[in-house]
């Protein structure tokens, strides 16, 4: 699909991403990102924040959260269909609300108690997993009275998803709980580090077995050990941790 963008829009978006990934404060990250994202997707509001599996979600604003968002963070978000999908899966996704509506969304308690009173009408939400407990999310929102999001806006969100992930990874690094130790390749054996680095480079059990002259079964056993020691569950999570700067690989043994 051809996306109808002006050079000025792309320039503002690019400048916002550059500023966001180098910002020091979460509020600055949000302000730089959301300004350009609202324009690109013709959204009334764009939110970025964190989903945490064991505690409340966090939404970062340029200004103080409004009443509805405080209510969402502290009580309602576990009923959010996007959060429920995140909680039940470790897969990244970028979906419109219509993809999760099985015909009962507008009769649900979540819709009655939060979504409708907040003035929300339609949304596209993306979730990008960082580790076993946390993910970053972006929500493109339209208020009541606007037209629904269409295929062009979804295509725009998909086209900019890699840049969005970079911003959310920056946000997670700024918000990581104090004292939490990120996973480290130093915790692995020499062979496990070799395999972890090859996985980060996009290798699979078959190609790694050829590269290291060991059987695919042995590689798979090492991969299980790597995931267990690092507290992750997939190659996608491992690659995300490496991209986010949470792994500082030592030299190959």
UniProtKB/TrEMBL annotation:
One of its GO terms (molecular function) is DNA binding. GO terms for biological process: regulation of DNA-templated transcription. It comes from Shinella kummerowiae. Residues 181-246 form the HTH luxR-type domain. This is LuxR family transcriptional regulator. InterPro entries: Sig_transdc_resp-reg_C-effctor, Tscrpt_reg_LuxR_C, WH-like_DNA-bd_sf. Keywords: DNA-binding, Transcription, Transcription regulation. SUPFAM superfamilies: C-terminal effector domain of the bipartite response regulators (SSF46894).
